[in-house]
Amino acid sequence: MKRIIVFLVLTSIISCHKHLETQKTTSTKINTSAMVKNDIPAQDSIFENEIICDSVYQNKNYKIVLRHFSREKGYDENDKNTVFIFSKKINGKYEELLRDSIESHVGAYEFQDFNGDKIKDILIQNISDIRSNWTYYLYLVDLKNDRLTKVKNFNQIKNPHYLPQNNLIDNEVMSGRNWTSFYQIKKDTVFDFGYVIYNGEDGNGNAVDFDKEYDKTLSKVLKNKNYK
Questions:
Q1: Which of 7, 44, 123, 178 could cross-link 110 (Cys pair, CB 3.0–4.6 Å)?
Q2: Considering the domain boundaries, does residue 228 fall inside one?
Q3: 0.70 exceeded by pTM
Q4: Domain range enclosing 48
Q5: Residue 148, CA distances (Å) to 66, 112, 143, 200, 217 in order
Q6: What is the mean pLDDT of each successive set of 10 residues along the chain, which is 228 residues long?
């Protein structure tokens, strides 16, 4: 098959170690309601993961903090349980550049370019569904202006995979019948080209040549008026 499939938990962990970011893990009790307003219900126990990003963004002095809140009263997938904080050290002190309240099941993170500017962007794991299809939040990194841009609807793409040669995103979703689609980031939003390729057997029980269908559909995407 012509594509690299999915992010897995092990992939994320190995990749993070490969980048050699300095990490610090702490467990503490704080007044959460004062820190994140009403985005996350006030709770006591948290687990915090601190990632110094010097090996990824050299000479930028960036730091990521993932602050995970416990759910002592049960789980609701619509609740936000994590605060993502992006900071930069200025004059010896970290100054917060972005704070976002999100839902992250395992708190995994990854650095990978997803818009073709040769700068690694930040992915934070969102959810994993019943068939272990992972979704992520994506923050595009602007090194010149020390700024992150959160991409709208990116966490709707299951198992995203970037195609640098075409500046596209594809995926492979595990379901009753596995399927693949194509997407592209346009400014701060994901665009879905609307094509779906199914793997396995068609409605008549005939085997689908997935690689052939993939190439045909990719060709359609590249000729689509919305592709750039």
A1: 123
A2: no
A3: yes
A4: 9-223
A5: 15, 14, 9, 40, 32
A6: 40 38 46 38 70 98 94 63 97 98 94 97 96 97 98 98 98 94 97 95 84 97 97
